[in-house]
Specification:
By secondary structure, the chain is α+β, with helices and mostly antiparallel strands. It has ten helices and 19 strands. It is elongated.
């Protein structure tokens, strides 16, 4: 059993932990199927899943594999282990387990004396990345770099946001992505004032900002990158906003290092944008961690008091969004180091005018 899982058992004084979140399940057991339950105790490491996944689970995980079916349900298997080990105090993932599932366990496992919510304890195990994880994240972001380089040759007046999205996604898959990290954002013209705009059949026009926020998965690990360009020549207002956001991005990255508090990192970029008079137009947090999920903890926002540690991975994505005019976001994915960062994004950040 990994030391981190053992620490949760000891700290929380638990007899066992149930894991149902697919990302935590993969992190702790290696199983990628996503459907099942882990039972972790001092005596046992058990992965319960059905016949669709048992063969793959046996290849991917060193946990004991138990098959649930019509004759022997997950609750039956859990009962066997809990009764054998006299497990009475059980931790569960209250932030991800469905209420319906929890109530089924409450009723179906009546010998459990206490259900203990784990809050973010399991997710926190994933905050500091291993070198193997970092290599997957490097490759995922590299694929994004390659796709961005290709899309610049495709963009021109008359193509639509939807067409740009389709090409970006195709390029990422072509360069070796397992899939997408999230729904690709392509927002042009006044649409770019919406940070999470949904691509439409709007055609690109001369003078448009185009904000592209995209990412892929490589061996299950996510990338996240945003670049904003102008089709044609940028006007003075566009240049002002772009250079402001670029400054916030670069200054923050130059100061970021392990030991800083997340909200202090957010404040660096926020103060730059606020001092220039655009504070009300930067409404989201500066960044978030990335790993098996596109949004992980911690987050660099105005509330998070987490102290950054070496080999945590964060995005740095300041923005300014002016309704009726347009917006800019520039996002890199960086590894936090003792004395600085390693930037995984290598795509050009200077203002690109196509």
């Amino acid at each position: 059993m990994g030391k981190s899982a053992a620490d949760i058992l000891k700290t929380k004084q638990l007899d066992a932990i149930l894991i149902t979140d697919p990302y935590n399940m993969r992190y702790l057991s290696g199983f990628r199927g996503g459907e099942g339950t882990l039972y972790i105790s001092e005596q046992s490491l058990v992965l319960i899943t059905d016949s669709r996944y048992t063969e793959a689970a046996g290849q991917e995980s060193d946990f004991a594999i138990e098959e649930c079916n019509h004759q022997r349900s997950t609750k039956d298997i859990l009962t066997e282990y809990m009764e054998r080990e006299q497990a009475k105090r059980i931790g569960y993932e209250d932030r991800s387990m469905l209420c319906h599932t929890f109530h089924e366990y409450e009723k179906g496992l009546p010998h459990v004396a206490e259900w203990v919510p784990l809050d973010q304890e399991v997710c926190k195990l994933r905050q500091v990345k291993t070198e193997e994880e970092l290599n997957c994240l490097r490759q995922a972001e590299h694929i994004g770099d390659l796709a961005f380089g290709r899309i610049l040759d495709f963009i021109k007046p008359g193509v639509t946001e939807l067409e740009i999205r389709a090409e970006l996604e195709y390029y990422m898959l072509q360069y070796g992505a397992d899939g997408l990290s999230f729904d690709t954002i392509v927002a042009s013209g006044i649409h770019s004032s919406m940070p999470h705009a949904i691509p439409t059949d709007k055609k690109i026009e001369y003078g448009d900002f185009i904000t592209m926020d995209f990412g892929c998965r490589y061996q299950g690990y996510c990338s996240d990158m945003t670049r904003t360009i102008v089709v044609g020549k940028a006007d003075e207002k566009q240049k002002e906003i772009y250079q402001l956001v670029l400054k916030a991005n670069r200054v923050t990255e130059s100061l970021l290092h392990a030991g800083m508090i997340c909200k202090e990192v957010d404040k660096i970029a926020r103060d730059i944008i606020t001092d220039a008079g655009y504070g009300p137009y930067f409404g989201h947090g500066l960044g978030h961690s990335v790993g098996l999920e596109i949004h992980e903890s911690p987050a660099c926002n105005m509330r998070d008091d987490t102290v950054l540690k070496p080999n945590m991975l964060m995005t740095v994505e300041p923005g300014a969004y002016l309704p009726g005019f347009g917006g800019v976001r520039i996002e890199d994915m960086v590894i936090v180091k003792e004395d600085g960062i390693e930037n995984l994004a290598h795509s050009n950040k200077e203002l690109i005018e196509l």
